Amino acid sequence: MPSLLERDAHIDRLDHLLADCLGRAGRVALVDGPLGSGKSELLRVFAARAAERGVLVVGASCSAQERDLPFGIADRIAHSPGWPAGHAERLAALADPAVLDDPADSADGTAPHGTVPYGGTLHSGARNGTGPAADPAGPPPPALLRACRDLTTALLAAAADTPVLLCVEDIGHADEASLHFLRHLVRHLPQSRVLLLLTDGSTPWPARRRVHAELLRHPHAHRLALAPLSRAGALRLVTEGLGEEDARHRGPGLVDVAGGNPLLLHALVDEHLDRADEPEPRYGPALLSCLHRAGPGVLRVVQAQAVLGEDAPAEDVARLLGERESAEAVARIRAALTAAGLLDGEGRLRTTAAGAAVLEDLAPHERTELRLRAAQLAHESGSPAAEVARHLVEAGRAPAPWAVAALTGAAEHALLDHRHRTAVACLQLAHKEAAEENDRAVLRHRLAQAEWQLNPSAAARHLAPLTAAVRAGHLGLAEALVLVRYLLWHGRGEEALAVLDLLRDRTGPASPAGTGALRDVETWLAYTHPGLARGRRVPALPADLRHTVAPDVDPQLRAAAALAGALTRGRAAEAVDRAQQVLHDAHLHGRTPWAEEAALLALRVLLEAGRADSAAVWSQRLLGTAARREAPTATALYSAAHAEAALRLGEPTRAAEHSRAALTHLSPTAWGIAVGLPLGTLIVAESRTGEHSSAAKHLTHAVGEAMFQSLYGLHYLFARGEHYLATRHGHAALADFLSCGELLRTWGLDGAGVVPWRTQAADAWLRLDNRDRAWRLIHEQLSRADADLPHNRGPALRLLAAAGPAGRRGPLLTEAVDLTEASGDRYEQVRVLTDLSRLHQGSGNKRRARLLLRQALHMANMCALRPLAQELLSVSADLGESGPAADEAPEPGGADALTESERRVASLAVLGYTNREIAGRLYVTASTVEQHLTRVYRKLGVRRRKDLPADLRAGLRKTG
After folding, report:
1. What angle do CA 699, 705, 709 make, to 5 degrees?
2. DSSP per-residue codes, 136-151
3. How many helices (H) and strands (E) would you count in the chain?
4. 520 to each of 574, 598, 816, how far by Cα in Å?
5. Nearest of 852, 945, 952 to residue 895 by alpha carbon
6. pLDDT tens, position by position, 670-687
7. Over the stretch 218-230, which tens digit does the pLDDT of each residue have?
8. What Rg do the C-alpha atoms of the chain give, in angstroms?
9. Helix-strand-coil split of the chain, %, nearest 5
10. Max intra-chain CA distance, the chain
């Protein structure tokens, strides 16, 4: 039987005591043990065994709620079924508390010292709520002694013919009169046929220990101590309850949280059987059922400990409970619960769910008052603000000025540690409770900043009140400028401009810090939101103040302005060092509201300077940091930036993956007008991988007109043109690319090289068979200041070769191959190699055309460029190729064995160059090239040039 695991010795001992009883040698046994150790179950099982042997089983249980009713045990014994005729009535009459109201005991008719009439209490001294009171002073009154004697005589007479097993549970809750009766009964048991079986042990209170001592001092009294189950016994109990298969998976976890407590284990098994569909057992309800049985005092201690924390000392728990408990009593309760297995060896609740469950058991107002008292005690003892704030947030109230200050301090520390959710909770309560309007405005601003890091949509509800606070002068310049950024993000450009105009009117030349910060924002605005910035300029500082360093200006805002200014002037290459410094220091400025903006502009500088590989590395680092800090907004921004860098490197699959992640970390609505960034990258990536229907669905996303006043809208418009171009809607694509150019000219950013609209418009013109217009646009592109950058010049030369005379195509495409290799853009590499292959095919050099085709097809398959791969397969058929050569990659480790010189020679050979041409390009002799190729063939296990693996593309940039 699972309930009696590891209890065989106790049953055997009780059997011996029952045998003595049947031989007219009455006995008393006290079954003691921790809460939930199985005392009641032991009594139940043994009572059934005794009844089978013809013993009359009589039971009574004590209750804390009935402790003030005299003779409660005797009354329950008297009314137990099974007594012989006549004896039941006699016992019931003697158990009537009215027998205690004997006027003869007092000359004036009042009860003597130490007694009270029925309905009062026989206890003297204060109770502690968890055990019986101390014994009353003085000897028991005569009426009580006579009643105990008469009850004992009647009970023993009833047991003269029939042996009796008298079971009394939880004597720690017995009333004083019943305890006197039990003491009297124990003294007269030896010549009777009564076995008195008592249970106790919820908590070892001093008064209870005295009762135990009085009951067990007789030679015929015995004590049986129960202990929690061993781990093996607990596992067996779970197995018998759940079955072997289920217990194999769930058993160890149940045993770990139950601590060997049989009562708790049974409750957990029952919970699991009732809720088998739930992945984990509900530990909280099972624990509560045990704690409620221990009495309200025990539960209060556990609840107070759950409020203060698992490591709270007993003194603090006692202080929180006020005068209800002493530190000594708290320590005793903890020790008893630890012995019962309900607390672990350190005196802590075994699971976090346990703490939540015991607190949920409190009424809401009780929980609030307990939390508020804990907060006040923490404040008075000088605890950290975070500890005070934790209790206040749980209470949902901050009724004093010190409470608001504690919440504010805790929020600032949480923001420093990037615990944004904690900061939000603290700031929400502080803002609600703050009395002064200025304080409320500042707290609202800090709350919006914290919520922004979690979800910009949540921060949007603060924009109108914060705008009003700026107008009323409750917020400073720095806070107002951050508000401008938030307004712009949500497409509220006119409101942002109104705030800026207000700040310009308030800030004069005498305030270099204010004017400098405004100029920084205007510079940033001119690049990121150029549609709103037209014609807006902050007055220049006086000459003597132009180089003044204002310590209160956000350094990240200043960095963002410097990078934006460089991008606006088309000088990204000159700002690379500054950009890398900003990125290097980004982890130091995670709390600054302009930090992400500065980092994103730094990544933009790297992209525009042709450093897409470096931008990919930095964005990946920033993404990892933001993810560790659990900042969804920053994570989304850096995911979008990394996606764009991946797209620039010709990796559309990775670009699409990170774009989707960006739109998961923040919903499209939360992205505001900035949604054009991840959405545009995703549209281009899916267009290049052939997922045209998915890209078309993204184009149905509703975007407001405000987005097209910013670079985000330009990015989206350019992406839409690429999608139209990929799906052969040349006129629609051309319209979007030309619209990009018109916007850039209107904004004054045409020289900034934001998007290569001329190159893509030229591609559209070529597909529409208008070479003249394409040729003019390409020449415009090649005459720009940034035209020499590989990522700009390579695609332009490819299109120039397509638009120009056939005789110039070879040199142009050859140079374009080197440029696309240098830029790292695999998408452009595939397109250039495809055109070069066609060129050689047209000139009759099918051998080189095949080699170039193999290289292009391998790269297209590697990058999942499915539309280009399909196009290459058609070219392959024209050349007589049976299929792609992507399976001709070198054996693992083979290509790695090549030296840099060997790899360079091999990569050019794969592209179809002769030994003499390779020698000319690398400035070596033809003999050297031949020697290198011989070693390459040997290392790769091939015999001739056409067997070289297709993925041996150039590993080094062009030399010479």
Report:
1. 110
2. PSSPPPHHHHHHHHHH
3. 46, 5
4. 19, 12, 39
5. 952
6. 999 999 999 999 999 999
7. 899 999 988 888 8
8. 43
9. 65, 5, 30
10. 138
